[in-house]
Every structure is written in C-alpha cells, then in structure tokens.
Amino acid sequence: MIEISRVITIGQYVPQSSVIHKIDPRMKILAAVIFIIVVSVVNSFAALAALTLFIILLIPISKLTFRFILITLRPALFFIAIMGIFQVLFYQQSGNQETLWSWWILHITVQGIIASMKVDIRSLLLYIFVNMLTYTTTFVELTDGAGSLMSPLQKIGVPVQEYMLTIMIALKFVPLFVEQLEQSIKAQAARGSSMDSGNFFSRAAKVSPLLIPLVLNGFQRAEQMAVALEARSYRGGKNRTKYRVLRLKPSDIFVMVFFMLIMAITLYINIRWMI
C-alpha cells in the first residue's frame, strides 16, 4: 500500500519542545536566507563538509530523527540524481579538461563529475535545511515572521498581509492535497486496483487519472476559502491587529549571532581551502 504522507512531508509541522522550535520565526527565516546565500556561494568540498556537519548536528538539536530526515529525502533524490547526470554530461568549462568519455555533444570529464558532486551536495543541504524550517515552525509563525520582516514595504503600497495570507494558504494546501491523493489511492486499492505494482512509469500512469478530481477539488476548496473570508469580513492591511505579537528574546539574538559565526567560519574555510 502506498503511504504518500510518510514520504512527501513538504509543509508538515512536527511538534516538539526543542530549542529550534522556540526560536523567533523572524530569526529562522533570516537564517534560512543567509544559509541559502552561503550554500550558493561556497565552492569547496571543505566548506560543504562544514555545512554538512552543521546540518547533522542540527537534526538532534531540533529533536528530529535521522530516519525521518532520510525518509523525507526520498522524493528529492530522483530529481537531484537527474540534475547531477545532466551536469556531468553537459558540463562545459574553458581550458584543458581531463575527458573520460565523449560522444557527439555529450562529454564526461573529471571537472564535470566534481561540479556535479558539488551541485548535488548543495541541493541536498538546501532541501534539508528549508524542510527543517517547516518542520520546526507552524504556518502561522512563518507568515507572521515573513509579514513582520516585510512590513516596511507597506509604506510604499505593497499589500504584504494579502501576500502572506496567500502564501500560507498555498503551503497549507500541500499536505491536504497529499492526504486526499493518498485516500483516493487507498479507495482504488480497496476496489482491486493495485497502484504500487509495476515500474515507475506504469505507476505514474495509474495515479495520473486521480489528479483531475484532485485539481477540481482544489478549486472547490479555494472557492470555499474565499467565501469564508468574505463572510468573516476579512480585510488585510497595516491596521489589522494580531492575537500573537512577536517579540525578540535574548536567546533569539544569541542563537542568531552563533549562527552568523558558523556561516562566517564556513566562508573562511571556503577561502582558505579551495578544494
């Protein structure tokens, strides 16, 4: 039996009482942005190894299990592997390259393999870190934190509250769609249709007809959401009050300073050991 909810965990929140769960969401969003920038900038295996060690230490601190993280990697591994293969076959760099195999426009070089490994490591680190942000932060906290960080844009007429509401609803619909798709697959299995047999393409062909009612149900949910907001006279804007007001604590500032220190050390390692 296919258990999609155990594999696709994008947008799911894992309630725990860890230190990371208690950090101000604004600090976590800023940390995610800085981490994305650092991962994109570094270009040495030493720096990538330092970031990997940081992620490995971060997992038990957040009270998440390594088994859970490995399970959540399964949906991304296929796409990361495809991206790595294309990087190897179509890698082009000026200068002398040590070619291992060549045919037509396809070339396998040592430099291409090294670049592919770096791209795959970056992708895995980004996928895990961004997912950990959603595992340790609720949708409401994420939208409140992002809205607070973007609140200065309201002075130039940007409807920040409306954008944050749209993002929150979009993220919230991801686990709902996954749950509904899993229910549809189980209903078909109860009627004698085996969805988890055959190769990847045959299983995809069996699941694809279920996507049409899923999309239609999504439009119906969106319409119901719009009617509910209108019925409650929802109005976004800068004058809207909040039940939960975000306030920075000394522990939040300490964690952010510590995180910035780790990122600075990583950049130094990248400059010092360019391998």
What is this structure, in a nutshell?
By secondary structure, this protein is mostly helical. It has one domain (4-272). The protein has eleven helices and two strands.
List the topology elements.
Elements: H1 4-7, H2 19-22, H3 25-41, H4 45-61, H5 66-89, E1 99-103, E2 106-109, H6 110-135, H7 139-150, H8 160-190, H9 200-207, H10 211-231, H11 250-272
Antiparallel strand pairs: 1-2
Helix pairs in contact: 3-6, 3-7, 3-11, 4-6, 4-11, 5-6, 7-8
Percent in helix = 55-70%
User: Order of SSEs, N→C?
Assistant: HHHHHEEHHHHHH
Task: Indicate how many domains the architecture comprises.
Answer: 1
Rg for CA atoms: 22 Å
Please tell me about this protein's structure.
The chain is mostly helical and 275 residues long. The protein has one domain. The chain has eleven helices and two strands. The protein has helices at residues 4-7, 19-22, 25-41, 45-61, 66-89, 110-135, 139-150, 160-190, 200-207, 211-231, 250-272, and strands at 99-103, 106-109. The chain has a two-stranded antiparallel ribbon with strand order 1-2. Strand 1 and strand 2 (106-109) form a beta hairpin. The longest helix has 31 residues, at 160-190.
